[in-house]
């Protein structure tokens, strides 16, 4: 049977990146080319296929019906090719398990436990992809994830594995350097740091009966490792994950300034697609995580 001539692999890869991200900027960065090159490839592909694939309106991109149809096929094709190539190159014949995991959770909670899983399942090649947000299991080559969030994710099965409440922490030297005792009311006079939302500090203060001023001074550090480091180095008070500071507290690097933590509606969830059967490798990882976290 003579096969129909297909568009170039480069054009299809460009379309796949754009359709997955819905951003010419992100697609260009991922592919290592300019936005103009991405735009040109997409325009040429639309001309070759004689159909509009991407709707560009007011800076917001969306796929047309034809684009969505093409994306489904192209994504599955690239997913299959990548999986096969992985299998025949560096996997050594082992099953590849792609896991999306929140970065700080990965370093503090998961990594110290990983060798147990590796010893239990030497046939599985575990690959971690760091992200706070859960993967789009329909579009991304992720088997299972552990991410921090609300858990309100359409099409996703989720199991809470760790509490995501936040608590004020600092280096032991920081409260000792102050004139007088530190209280929730005078805490707002100190250098404050947070990672996600200034409102989280307001919520914690409310739990202590303190109304934050209209202008609350606090510095955002949008990385858990940087936030932790700022607290350890004595720069101020960080609102940090209560469930992930035990090691630092025991080692004397951090102190929990107040016992009360604030839950902002986000926790760490094991998550995976509701629309597809988990493969054996992902089921093995799920059993391991639930056992380690003590979740039945």
TrEMBL record:
SUPFAM superfamilies named among the record's database cross-references: Periplasmic binding protein-like II, Winged helix' DNA-binding domain
Gene3D superfamilies: Periplasmic binding protein-like II (3.40.190.10), Winged helix-like DNA-binding domain superfamily/Winged helix DNA-binding domain (1.10.10.10)
PROSITE patterns given in the database record: HTH_LYSR
Domain HTH lysR-type, first and last residues per copy: 7-64
Keyword presence, Isomerase: no
Pfam families in alphabetical order: HTH_1, LysR_substrate
Protein keywords: DNA-binding, Transcription, Transcription regulation
InterPro entries reported for this sequence: LysR-type_TF_proteobact-type, LysR_HTH_N, LysR_subst-bd, WH-like_DNA-bd_sf, WH_DNA-bd_sf
Metal-binding among keywords: no
Family per similarity comment: Belongs to the LysR transcriptional regulatory family.
UniProt protein name: LysR substrate-binding domain-containing protein
Organism expressing this protein natively: Mesorhizobium shangrilense
